[in-house]
Inverse folding.
């Protein structure tokens, strides 16, 4: 199964002609999952190879506008481009994000009279008090949203509390993926997401099966799916005996804006990530200012990559002062390549690769090879 990550916006605070506001897409076999949706994400999508209509899930890391303001407009445009089919009702778009997101979307879509041709559901993560400074705790107004009427296309969503034992938020599990969220510290409660692909069963050792007298047929499928089978002779063949080593699933982790991790959950969820996407808003020379605004520097991002033994660290969410490499602004104080050097220096003994994201950069995530 092919898998890749495309950055649609890599700038912080606002979209500029050089860097869009935060958004990236994880694509697997044509299915697109969108992470954050800053203003202008829909036009960035149109300029990319991706199709907005393929977005089936949206994950919002936190409620700052540079990660969220593009979402109502994007949903409306997906709807405009949808041709209603009488035979196949459109699938529900699942949106995951912090508490308050349901209210935001409901108000934005309802007040603007936006009609959607497809249903959507918002699944809210309940933040804990230690995810932001006390003065910026979001106002708690559950009563207000309980009495609001839902948008006609809104389906009931889940409210997901922290699973204290695992220090994470279980979001979804299907036959291909397990997705959890974890807590980050920022000016507003922020979250990261870990997408773990399930391991694939190894190949069947057909020679051994023949030697055991197992004939090709449905029995092969049962063994491959992990079931033991009993032969006519009474001999039980277990999958372990006849399956080669499983192919480990890939892991992609996307962190929202942060100046620190909260609890043990983030490192547990990101352990051994194939790709770790982490913000680096300002260079290490501006560390104090970065932290003051709830942000990270390349060295701070590298420390997270080191702690979870990530194979690849992708930096994004750059201050708009750092122009893309393609503009050829190397050498100055605002040279974005300097951010990569800072992270590389902090990771030089680890083998972790550092990548600078630019708008429209696509990173393939190949199937792991067995050694
Ligand atoms: Zn931001
Ligand atoms: Zn932010």
């Amino acid at each position: 199964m092919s898998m890749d990550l495309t950055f649609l916006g890599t700038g912080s605070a606002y979209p500029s002609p050089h860097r869009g506001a935060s958004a990236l897409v994880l694509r697997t076999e044509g299915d697109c999952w969108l992470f954050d949706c800053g203003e202008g994400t829909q036009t960035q999508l149109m300029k990319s190879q991706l199709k907005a209509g393929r977005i089936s899930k949206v994950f919002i890391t936190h409620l700052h506008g540079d990660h969220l303001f593009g979402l109502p407009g994007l949903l409306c445009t997906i709807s405009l481009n949808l041709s209603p089919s009488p035979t196949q009702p459109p699938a529900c778009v699942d949106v995951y994000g912090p508490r308050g997101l349901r209210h935001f979307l409901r108000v934005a879509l309802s007040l603007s009279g936006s009609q959607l041709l497809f249903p959507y559901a918002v699944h809210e993560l309940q933040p804990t008090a230690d995810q932001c400074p006390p003065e910026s705790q979001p106002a708690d107004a559950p009563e207000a949203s309980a009495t609001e009427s839902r948008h006609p296309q809104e389906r009931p969503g889940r409210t997901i509390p922290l699973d204290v034992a695992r220090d994470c938020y279980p979001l979804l599990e299907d036959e291909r993926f397990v997705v959890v969220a974890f807590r980050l510290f920022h000016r507003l409660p922020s979250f990261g997401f870990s997408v773990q692909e399930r391991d694939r069963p190894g190949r069947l050792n057909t020679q051994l099966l023949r030697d055991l007298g197992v004939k090709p047929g449905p029995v092969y499928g049962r063994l491959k799916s992990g079931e033991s089978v009993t032969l006519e002779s009474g001999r039980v063949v277990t999958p372990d005996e006849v399956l080669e080593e499983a192919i480990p699933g890939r892991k992609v982790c996307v962190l929202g804006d942060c100046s620190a991790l909260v609890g043990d959950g983030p490192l547990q969820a990101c352990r051994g990530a194939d790709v770790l996407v982490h913000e680096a808003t300002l260079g290490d020379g501006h560390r104090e200012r970065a932290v003051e605004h709830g942000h990270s520097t390349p060295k701070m991002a590298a420390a997270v990559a080191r702690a979870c033994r990530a194979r690849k660290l992708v930096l994004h969410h750059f201050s708009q002062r750092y122009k893309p490499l393609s503009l050829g602004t190397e050498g100055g104080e605002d040279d974005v390549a300097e951010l990569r050097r800072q992270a590389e220096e902090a990771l030089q003994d680890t083998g972790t690769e550092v990548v600078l994201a630019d708008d429209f950069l696509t990173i393939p995530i190949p199937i792991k090879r067995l050694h």
Summary: The chain has two domains: 3-199+247-364, 206-242.
